[in-house]
Amino acid sequence: MSLLPRSAEEFSSAEYWEKFFKKRADKAFEWYGDYNRLCGVLHKYIKVHDQVLVVGCGNSELSEQLYDVGYKHLTNIDISETVVSHMNQRNAERRPGLTFQQVDATQTPYEDASYQAALDKGTLDAMASEEEGILARSMLTEVGRVLSVGGRYVCVTLAQESVIRLAVEVDSVSCQK
Question: What range(s) does the Methyltransferase domain occupy (predicted)?
Fold first, then answer.
């Protein structure tokens, strides 16, 4: 399997990510930049005491680096059982409070308004690659549900027009409720 999918729509497929992480094994993959590149923005919008939902964490080192500088309330989720298992093993001894859960970002088990921030580094882009954007809309709606009033959705994205349009559309609908 090539690391690149045959079509952009594969980025929204759980099967693609399972194969991707089985092939990558323990090699971290940083989509769109690492902690050093992003820390200024992250520290501005995500506070150390915040309950943070990390959506589509993959095997990025970002959560580990945030944990190491004091962010102890991170809930890391990913659709891939392989990557979640690997990340829990990788952090069990050194970062016992840092856990990873296999959760579908479109249907999380978390209570309404239970997070002050959600961090997304490439997940919206991956889900928006599905032709009709149904998964992306579902994920954005779910993130909105679990964020508290005044909560922040920090999204690292390529900001393609179609992705921005989806985000604005979902936000507009949720504001009308």
Answer: 52-151
